[in-house]
Amino acid sequence: MKDRFTSQKIRYGFTIIEMIVAILLMTILGVVVMSRFADSNSLTGDVARDMIVSMSRTALQNSLGRSTVTLTITPSAGGGEATIETSDAGGTIRTETVSLRSVSLSGDINITDSCEVTPGVSSISNAAPMTISFGTLGDIGVSGVTGNTGAVTSAVRICVNNLASDSVCVSPSGFAYAGDCDV
């Protein structure tokens, strides 16, 4: 008498339909992941904006009741990155470097229109860095892009890619925030 299980063949492997479904799912997953890596430049403006806001707040905090602190944004000669530095009479307080891949920086003082409506007056470059001076009360002193500086009466505006959402505004009281100047 034969065992009823010996006549059955044990099947290993996948059917062609299972293989096609698996390949299709892996392809869809690969396309989604690659699109995230391929468009990494879209986040570079956000990172630059956030770093400028963070360093502005650091400068404000270090100036309160102590001494005048200067925030300087200096793109590299090739434009691939920018150095953001806070310093006082004693020297450098903090320095950060941020990538400027496909990012343009421009800035001005006392213009509070949206960067999309009125782009920044002066391009921030290695030859013309942006400086913002924070006084001992946190107020903004003489600031602006080299060659276009003056007393700040309404705001300092830094346009990142001339987008309102990526712009930085520093109010006359020294508070920095992302977005359009609404002071």
Helix/strand/pairing category: alpha+beta
Question: Into how many domains do the coordinates divide?
Answer: 1
Order of helices and strands: HHEEEEEEEEEEE
Separate helix tally: 2
What would you call the shape?
elongated
Put the structure in a nutshell.
It contains two helices and eleven strands; from the N terminus they run H-H-E-E-E-E-E-E-E-E-E-E-E.
Textual characterization of the structure:
This protein is α+β, with helices and mostly antiparallel strands and 183 residues long. The chain has a single domain (44-178), classed as 3-Layer(bab) Sandwich (minor pseudopilin epsh fold), CATH 3.55.40. It has 2 helices and 11 strands. The chain has helices at 16-38, 44-63; strands spanning 69-75, 81-88, 91-99, 105-109, 122-123, 130-134, 143-145, 148-150, 156-160, 168-170, 176-178. Strands 3-2-1-6-7-8 form a 6-stranded antiparallel β-sheet, with helices on one face. It has a 5-stranded antiparallel β-sheet with strand order 5-4-9-10-11, covered by helices on one side. The termini are far apart. The model has no long low-confidence stretch (mean pLDDT 83).
Q: Which labels suit this protein?
A:
183 residues; alpha+beta; minor pseudopilin epsh fold; 6-stranded antiparallel sheet; 5-stranded antiparallel sheet; 2 helices; 11 strands
Topology, element by element:
Elements: H1 16-38, H2 44-63, E1 69-75, E2 81-88, E3 91-99, E4 105-109, E5 122-123, E6 130-134, E7 143-145, E8 148-150, E9 156-160, E10 168-170, E11 176-178
Antiparallel strand pairs: 1-2, 1-6, 2-3, 4-5, 4-9, 6-7, 7-8, 9-10, 10-11
